[in-house]
Structure formats: structure tokens, C-alpha cells
Amino acid sequence: MPITPTDKIWMDGELVDWADAKVHVLNHTMHYGSGVFEGIRAYGTSNGVAVFRLREHIERLFASAKVFLIDVPFTVDELIEATREVVRVNGLNDGCYLRPLVYLGYGEMGLNPLPCPVNVSIAAWPWGSYLGDDGVANGVRVKVSSWRRHDANAVPTAAKGTGMYVNSSLAKVEALNAGYDEAILLAPDGRVSECTGENIFIVRGGTVITPHTSDAGALAGITQNSVETIASDLGFPVVHEPLIRTDLYTADEAFLTGTAAEVVPIRSVDDREVGSGKPGPVTTEIQRTYFATVRGEMDRYKDWLDYVE
Questions:
Q1: Phi, psi (deg, nearest 5) at residue 23
Q2: C-alpha–C-alpha distance, residues 5 and 236, integer Å
Q3: If we measure between CA atoms, which residue out of 4, 39, 37, 2 comes closest to residue 18?
């Protein structure tokens, strides 16, 4: 989806004009993929714009950096306030997507990242539904990719690392070129892992099921965790268990979750309709509650909203 430029990007403690937010061509992350990032959304509510689960996202950013031995030169609280500042200064009162990035800068070359300077940026821009409004309303067509998800002992799948997403891009392009909306990647042992940038759920007999995360190569999602809580509160049993591709074909319902995608029904997998081929009742109720939550309409989850004042 194209980006609509905003006025300012936060870079290492300063607000920089969008057009001037540049890095050197020899920065380490560009060459070797050693960086970590987050995707965060803010939403307009009746009480003002609010960032959804901001602290959890920034804490996960720091956890990812720890895995990669990157020492972030700011505190969690400083980056939380910087995130609020970016939303505020750009006047994004109707909500936006946010991209904090920790990257290794210019000054060292070669595979050893340890001597490299560490830089941090936070950008924000208006961004609609990642998989499209029709996908949110009616579901998406997905295929199981020929590309496998990373082995957790080959690269650290518990971290949200920049270079690791080449794997996702390959699967995404394969799916789009074949006429699908999204791809599902299998773990090295053939179990279902996740989509290119989303966690996956199925519904079977009224139970909401999602695969185990990092041991199957999937990132533990903050939206995934939110949906698990919402589903449980709605009275649906929630379990983590291994899934294989035929579990997707025979599920009553299926959906995917992610910050960019939000909650999106899956209407078919590998040309096999999931259930009736339309969003099912469990998915629909979870999706409705999730959107009400991020828009500040659910007091039960008000602590998930960080208001920008």
C-alpha cells in the first residue's frame, strides 16, 4: 500500500522533515539486515487519538533488540513518549500506522555488528486496511507457500528482525503472483507457522485454536494476544496446539491477526472454502469486539489504549 507522507519523523531524539529522514548507503542494517522494528496502530476515539498497546509494542522492540545484542540508546519510556510526539506533531487525530525502527548506522562494514552505532527512528502515516476493506468484510483467499518459515535455531524467530522478512516477502510475492491475497508459511517440520506478517487462527467446534509461536517459527503477536483475551472473554475456549495444512481446509472458520491487518477472515485456503466460504459467527464476533476495543468503545479493555494528549 502506498505511503502518504506526513510532516515529521522522529530520528534519534529530533523531529526531522519527512523528506530529510535519510541514512547513509553504507549503513550496516541495509547490507546485513541487523535491525529490529515494530508495527503499531493508533486510532481515533471519542476521547482523542489513542495508540493501541503502545507499551507492549515498545517492550517487544527492546526484547527483539536484546536477542540481536543491540543496545538501544533510549529507554522504553523515552520511546513511548517519542511515539506519542510523532502522532501529536503530525496531527494524526484520526489514527495512523507507526513504525519504530532500531538500525545499525554508518561507520563499520563487515559481518560483525558490535562496533556499529545504533540509531532509532519512528515514522507515522495514515494507512488503511493492509489486506483491503473487502478482505476485512468478506475474507481473503490464501495459499500455503512453497517457502518454509525459518527454523528457530537458524534465526531467532522470537524477535522481530528486519532482515528476516525477506522470507515473508518471497512468500507474499508468490501468493500475489498466483492470484491470492496472502500466504501461509509452514514450519521446517511441516506444521503451520503463520502468514507473511500475521498470526493465524482456526475455529473448530466452537474452540479458537492458534499454533504455538516461536517454536514453529512464528512471532508471538500482540494482536494475537489481544484476540485470545477477547475470544476467551466472549466465552470461546482458546487453545494453542500444532496445526497441519489439512486442519486449515477442514476448519469451521479461520482468520488472521496482525497490527497492520487487524482481524481478517480467511474464506479459502489453497482453493478450498473454509466453512461456508464466508466470515463465520465466531470470527465476526471477535472482529466486531476488536474494532470496538481499539476505538475506545469497550471499557473492559481501556488499559490497552494509550491516549495522545
A1: -130, 160
A2: 41
A3: 4
Structural domains in the chain?
Answer: 8-125 (3.30.470.10), 133-294 (3.20.10.10)
Contact 265, 239 (CB under 8 A): no
Q: Dig out the grid coordinates for 243 from the structure.
A: 496445526
pTM: 0.96
CB atoms inside a 10 Å sphere around CB 6: 18
Nine cell digits for residue 173: 510475492
Of the chain, the end-to-end C-alpha distance in Å amounts to 29
How far lies 93's CA from each of 44, 69, 170, in Å?
6, 36, 35
Residue 114 CB burial class (10 angstroms; 0-12, 13-18, ≥19)? exposed
Residue that is written with C-alpha cell 507522507 in the block: 5
Show the low-confidence residues of the chain (pLDDT under 70).
Answer: none
| Buried-exposed string 54-77: b where 16+ CB fall within 10 A, e elsewhere | bbbbbbbbbebbeebebebebeee
The number of beta carbons lying within 10 Å of the beta carbon of residue 168 is: 20
238 exposure class (CB count in 10 Å sphere: 0-12, 13-18, 19+): middle
Measure the CA–CA gap between 124 and 107, rounded to whole angstroms: 27
Give catalytic residue positions. 160
Query: What is the sign, positive or negative, of the torsion defined by CA atoms of 161, 167, 173, 178?
Result: negative
List, in sequence order, every beta strand (DSSP E) within 187-261.
192-195, 199-204, 207-210, 238-240, 253-258
* Nearest CA-CA partner of 200 in 172, 151, 233, 242: 242
Residue pLDDT, tens place only, 165-183:
999 999 999 999 999 999 9
Distance between CA atoms of 271 and 277, rounded to whole angstroms? Answer: 10
8 φ/ψ sector (left φ>0, alpha ψ -120 to 50, else beta): beta
The pLDDT tens digits of the residues spanning 44-71 come to 999 999 999 999 999 999 999 999 999 9
Q: How many CB atoms lie within 10 A of CB 295?
A: 16
